[in-house]
Amino acid sequence: MWGRAHYPHPGQWLGSGNRCGHRPDAPAWHHFNEPETRKPLPHFIQTLIDKVRDYYAKPSLLPTLANLSGKINKLSGKPRQNRSEAREAESLVMQAILSRTDFASLRVGTPLPDGRFIHRTMVEIATIAGMVEDAIDKETKQLVKRPTQRFWRAIRRLKIGGAIDIHKQYETLEDGTIRARPGIKTVNMHFLVALGRISYEKLKAFRTHCSKALKLDSDSHKQQFPDRHDPEIANRRLREQQREKGIKTNPPSSTDKAPVIHDRDKRKELQRQYSQAQLEFATNLYGQYPGRPETWYSEQLRRAFPSLDDWIARNNR
Q1: By C-alpha distance, which of 95, 88, 93 is closest to 123?
Q2: Max CA-CA distance within the chain?
Q3: 22: Cβ contacts below 8 Å, ≥ 6 apart
Q4: Residue 228 belongs to what domain range?
Q5: What is the rounded distance in angstroms from the CA atom of residue 31 to the CA atom of residue 88?
Q6: Which residue in 59, 82, 88, 256 has its CB near the most CB atoms, within 10 A?
Q7: Number of folded domains in the chain?
Q8: What per-residue confidence (pLDDT) applies to 9?
Q9: In angstroms, what CA-CA distances link 309 with 72, 121, 271?
Q10: pLDDT of residue 255
Q11: CB 151 within 8 A of CB 167
Q12: Helices 308-315 & 266-288, crossing angle to 10 degrees?
C-alpha cells in the first residue's frame, strides 16, 4: 500500500526507507570492504574511521557536511540535516578514503620507497566502499565494475563539504591523444581535526611519524639502488651550477600542483567555499575551547554562519 492506495511497483526494497535498501536504524557498514594490508591500520586511522561512522548517528559532529543546504529549519531554528541515506553513503566513501590515505602527504594512495606515488582510482575507492555495479567497457566490450551513481553523489557532497579536494591529471600518448589519469585526491586537514575531535598537534605528530617511516624506506631504497637516484641528484647539482652562471632552467613540472577541480554549478562551488570556511571556524573553536558540549559548538557555528544565502550575500558585497 502507498497511503490508502495500492502501490503498483513494490520492487525488491519495498518498506525500506526510500526503497533503495537503506534502513535508517541499521546502516550498511557490512558493505565496507576493509583493504588487506601487511599490518593492521594504525590506531589513529581506525579512530578516524570510527568517528566517520559516529557521524551517521550524530550529524552535529560535522555540521559542514550534514547541513550542505545551508538552510535553517524555521520551526526549530536548527540547521537542516542531510538524509540518513546520504549520510550512510558519505560515511562509507569516507571510510574507504581514510583507509587508503597517506597521512604524510594527505593524498589518497600509496607512496613507494623509490619516490613514486600510486594514486588510488575512484573504482578502487568505490569497491572498498561497496558501491560498484557491473558495466560494459566501451573500448574492450568486456564486463567491468564501475562506481554507482550513489557513489558519485557522495563524492560530490564530500567535495562540497570540504572533506576532500580532487586535482586533474592527464598524460599525452605517443599518437598525441590526451588520456586522463587517476586524479590526485587529498584529504582536508581541517576536516580530520573536526571529525576526530583531535588537536592539530596530534595530527601533526602522526603525520611526522608517517613521514619519518617513509624516509627510512626511501633511504634504504637509495642505498640498495643508487643508479635510480643518482641521476636526479646530478640534475639538481647541474641546475645549481647553471644558476651560479646566471642561467635559469626549470625542473619538470609536478602533477601534484594541478588545479583543484571546481564544481560546474556555481552555487555548488559557493557551497564548497562556505563549507571550507565553516570547517576552519569550527576547528579553531575546538582548539580554543576544548571540552565544551556539542550544543555549544553548534550554536557558535550557527551564529557565525546563519545560512548559505546570507553568507553568499555578505561575501559578495
Answers
A1: 93
A2: 87
A3: 16, 28, 84, 85, 88
A4: 29-237+268-312
A5: 11
A6: 88
A7: 1
A8: 54
A9: 11, 35, 10
A10: 47
A11: no
A12: 100
